[in-house]
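Forgive a beginner's question, but would it be possible to get a protein, spelled out as residues, together with the matching structure tokens, please?
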Amino acid sequence: MAMVQTRSGTYNLRELKDIPHYEPGRPPRPLFDIGFMEELEPMWGHKWGAQSALGKIRVVMVTPPNREELAPEFREFRRQDPAFFGGERGEPDVALLQSQFEYFLSILRGEGIEVVGMNPPPVTQGLYVTPCGVTDSGMCVMLNGGVIIPRLALATRRGGEVYWTKRFAELGCPILYTVHGYGVFEGGNVAWLDPKHVMIGVGLRCNEEGVRQVEPIFRMAGVEEIHRVYLTSYVEHAIGNQHHLRSSFSMVGERLCVLYPPRMDHSTIEYLRSKKIKLIEAPEREMLNAACNILSLRPGKVLITAGNPVVAGRLRAEGLEVLEMEWSETVKRGYGAAGGGGPICSSFPLIREPGPML
């Protein structure tokens, strides 16, 4: 490799013979036979991909509590209609929220996971509401090779798509697709069974058009089977409803999941049984405390919200190492409409090993 010095710096130039398909004295040939994934790490800097719920997490994105968004003037704005802003449980204690988040970070770092910040501005300008919610990076979807930018369902969140797009561009992570048109699609409705099998929830936070748009992107990333889960939804009364699939379902081990069956259609239960996946059912009280929103740190070790003794006990009985963390103030913020935002919703793996296959 030759070194060339110019006014603006020193550059490494490859030997011509090292360039693919180089032929002396002939025009360059197109690189039609070299795949995107072959060039992913040398071109984009990392082997981006988290197409698993169980593989060891290497890099994760998180967003710390935004004190500006919790300022008195914004709290007062939300008090105009707590149900609309998902705040039926009241506003969180800011100091306790921060303390719980710092403990969450210590768990991630203690596992040797590299933590990347979302880094939004102090106040995020939403399309309809200021500030809009961008703390839940899990609204995006990380496939092998890059990220899908969602199109959010709620007026209180819409506009966060812009901040995620900017941040992934800063990180050098490829953006494989941006949901558009009348498609609505949120990553909280994506549940990986393994890198080739995925379930996508259709309901209040994801429509059929959204799934139709992303399906070919999933296929290009190696997904062989996509199962739609038709989620139950509210009519007029929203309290207690879980609008994301991951509020009522998580893979926690090889052929092992935690779920709350009343939130999903019976065909999904039969689908899971056909894959020989063992079902651990969560009681309703614990489901509302984010008991089904479980983050697998690596095979055999999971992180759950404290205060869910039935689910925690059943996981330990299956031989899993279970870490519990207090997460009351994030649950209180209405992430998932009155009780949904657990460790999965509060983190977004950027690089994760494949984990076990079905």
